[in-house]
Amino acid sequence: MTQTTISLTAVRRRVRPSRTLPFLVVALLLALLLVFFVLPVIWLLLAPSKTAGEVVRDNPLSFGSFHQIATAWQHLFAFQDGAMTRWLRNSAVYSGGSLVLTLAVSVPAGYALALTKFRGRRTLLVITLVTMIMPQATLVLPIFLELNRFHLIGTIWSVILPFSFYPFGVYLVYIYFGSSLPRDLLSAARIDGCTEWQLFSRIALPLAKPVVGLVAFFSFVGNWNNFFLPYLVLPNSEQFPVQVGLNQLLTSTPSFNPVAGAGLNVTIPELALAIIIAIVPVLVLFVFSQRTLVSGMLAGSSKE
Hints:
About 75% of the residues lie in helices and about 0% in strands. It has helices at about 1-45, 50-55, 65-80, 85-115, 120-135, 135-150, 155-165, 165-180, 185-190, 195-205, 210-225, 230-235, 240-250, 270-290, 290-300. It is mainly α.
């Protein structure tokens, strides 16, 4: 009996280190997450509440005052006669306009690739997949040359049209319709006399609301955060979206560019506030669309 107790104790001692090691690894990963992701976000949220000097001198995680937030807000929206307001409005127009075109193109295209057979279907699918996995920067030059050929550089269409081409959205819809749409339901509708357009608009599209919402979310977020293409095709500050405007705001901040920023009311608190404002639309959209996103991600995970 005593030997059994001793052997069990020895086994427990051998097991404990194996349980402790994963715990230490998880704790280390959480600590790294806190240092590199959480703390910068907290600093960003607190920076507008302090003056530029307090941001440098005081505790990075200390709160300043609500009065300073109001002052930073006033200075930010007074920059270049309300440029921040124009940039936000431009981003909404570019992202919203391209979102409408994205849905109008991606959903029918994904449906056609999944449920219809035509010559060149496989080639189109391969092109879509290749374009989807290519880095966006590799397509900027040919898109720029194409837009320049049609004299669209500097117009609203130079941003909306490239944003509207969304291969990832086409592929998501293709996966959903190819795996989750009941074929028996479509066959029954055809027997009842439904045309292909009626099948798509009255049966397939209502069932695809989760994946349509998923495509809409990713498209809007990608368009809202896009910087490189608008930076190249929009020469006028009046046309900039907010992401390109933040770059101009950065170059007007004395802490980062003393020569260009001399005499301006743009400091680190105003820049931090501008970043927060630029994030808010995407954050609000995410909060109110979580259920749709989850159902959209699960759509197509099992075959009916």
